[in-house]
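Q: What would this complex look like in 3D?
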Amino acid sequence: MSIVEIIIRLIIAFGAVFTFVALNALFLVWLERKVSALIQQRLGPTEVGPAGLLQTLADAVKLMGKELITPTAVSRTVFFLAPIIAFLPAPLLVAAIPIAKGVGVSDLNVGALYILAISNIALLGILMAGWSSNNKYSLLGAMRAVAQNISYEIPMLLSLLAIILMAGSMKFSDIVKAQETVPFVLLQPVAFIIYFICSIAESNRTPFDIPEAESELVAGYHTEFTGMRFALFFLAEYTQVFVLSAIVTLLFLGGWNGPLLPPAVWFFLKTYLVIFVVMWLRWTYPRLRSDQLMNFNWKMLLPAAILNLLISSVIYRGGFPG
Amino acid sequence: MSDSETTVALEIKPTAYQQQLLDLLSSLHLAGIQLSDFSKTGVDFDAVANSETLPAAASALRDNGFALDCILGIDRNPGLEAVYLFRPFADGARVRIRAQVAPDRALLPTITGIYSGADWYEREVHDMFGIVFEGHSHLRPLLLPHFTNFHPLRKNFHGSPIVIPEDTVEIPEVDLQAAMKLGQTDRTHRDFFLNMGPQHPSTHGVLRILLHVEGEEVLGGRCHLGYSHRGTEKLAEKKQYVQILPYTDRMDYLAPLNYNWGYAALLERATGIESTPRAEAIRVAIGELARVSSHLVWLGTFMLDLGAITPFLFCFEDRERILTVFERATGQRMTTSYIVVGGVRNDVYDGFIQDVRDLLDYMRKRLPEYDRLVMTNEIFLQRTRGVGVITAQQARDQGVTGPVLRGSGVDFDLRRDEPYCPLYQELKWNVVVEQEGDCLARSRVRMREMDESLNLIEQALERIEEGPYRAKIPRNFKVNAGEYYSATEGPRGMVGWYLVADGSMTPYRLKVRVPSFPNLQVVESLIPHSRVADVVAILGSVDVVIPEIDR
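A: Here is my prediction, written as structure tokens for the whole assembly.
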């Protein structure tokens, strides 16, 4: 591979990833509005574009046109960097997700590990945002976000381990390959439930949306951010929703395996179905309290995840199907 | 209307219970003990206290199960008067104790040590009349700005331009913190003060709560009121009786009809005018509809506070249907001014009964849906069970009323226990009571109350008979000199109206005792050692409307 080829590949990859991140966020915001409208007996956006599809684009343009307000008392450097660092993992994560066999920017041999490691960078951005804003609501929100994300990371990792144990690999394409006959959701239902709950918690969505609990903390860590800075947090959040749902699809729902339709279609179909469920939950449930959230994690999810890993390691000692 | 005095000195033969109370009052060294005609004045017993006898009297009343209704001030010009109203929840006997002071030396002992609910009432009287309550721990302005040096409800105050001192525009934060008694001993480097409001998504209006928090734990908090104070009580002294009606709409904007009704009930008691049977039935039907609509807003906003957005939209859609009926019947969706002295302002439209029946069918389908969506939700139960427990004794001391009181296991509803409308005695319905006193119990009370209201509406519709919708009354009537009190059950609790009439076309003094006032005050005592999220839940569960507190 010559230098020129590498550069061209890099540019294409960058272009693809960023385009996808932007388009995905636009689509998900529209979907969220439509889903919430469906649940709340409303119509949702209808005016801009067919079925309101371009509404989010209009909103994005509006956000770009807005003034970037930096309150006087903020820690300027950190305040400036926070949204960027919060957004940074979004494209990095998307880059590591294969959408079909051999299709994707990169199918790392430590894909699952990489995802877990990189997604936590966003947390740093959130903490920076909360800290630098010099706003008590922001700080409380950031504190909650960090506590919640670090806690839920552990059962998430443990349930992921059960899958890696079965697939014998951390590479996503291998994990999907191992599910050609039976998707892991049937073999590892407990791990699936734990992983799915943790995913929702990781993406700070209802019923685990306490970091940005509107009724308590106004807007949580992004209270002081305006315009595109706010939009970056928003983009990061929706990309994270996609990434987490995509991983649920890859790990548990058999990834791109499926009859008749092309693999990539199966992958997106399953992923957006998971996203729909996540949205459905958001528009149905109230929010947990922070201490209840912690109790739920440490007293229920964690023991369940450990037990599940223990049992799986006994049953599937030689790998699956082994 | 009889021309007799409003308080009749022992002309009425006292019953055994009344005799017992008379004996109690006589043993308290109070002066001027009188039995009063409840149907004309709204008060059963009168007594006069002074600085020495007042605390002992309050203490004895508390020991006998009396709750604090209200404390209000009256400027007798010259001379100021503080009026204390007490009422036990069990039996209908309201005791009024007057304490007179000179305007230049207006000192009274505080009763906050006896009734914790006296705290805000005393501060309000201090605001408005300048009566100093000795021993009160933080007698700072409650409804007025902190720099206020005038007393607006005194008769010599005519609304002269108010000069805001330049150096005191900022609220002295240190004072507030010192007032919370948290500044000295138990402060660590980890705690801080969090300002919730006046602009905050879940304070339901312009309320400001200063919270002292350590991480997520709330150590204490103080409410700051007065952001929407409009001086309604002072305005009422300048207006004719009929002109005051629109102001009553604007106190509790979620249930204006119940406030219209309360004001009409007061004037009917004061003037002896009786409303017509048709009007009574319309009042019950439309008043209970207002209760349902108010409870729907509570349910929606409470769930919003707990983080669920969808029930809010469901509730508002249902409320919209009710408001549509209001609009057709009264001409307005919210500021109705519909229930007036002697009846209702205009007759209901043709098809009103059918519209309300359709509404009932619809609501009967919706309420079970809310039960499934909200009341049985595990997260909802987790967030509300055992949170913000108000004991029955605490409720009594604070003067809490309405669903909050009934959620604390006290079986008390003015519609049944102090009837202001004969229909409530005749129709079949139940007072909903829950024992636990937590947010969940309060929620359940309101949910079941909606069911009961629907039953009441259905029965009231059948009672709408042919006849005049309004009694014949003069356009501008006068009220005979005297003092009158009337209490009605609003969606949030007891709406009390205290009128001092001087025989003219305008009131000498009109005091509105609003349910949210004590109901919000109780929140202050519930928030220590809760979580930030609990504060929001508690505030949502007591269902306060700030403009009625500020008036």
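A: To summarize the key features: Chain B is about 40% helix and 15% strand. Chain B touches chain A at residues 192, 194-195, 200-202, 215-216, 303-310, 313-314, 317, 373, 377, 379-380, 382-383, 531-536 (CB under 8 Å).
Q: Very helpful, thank you.
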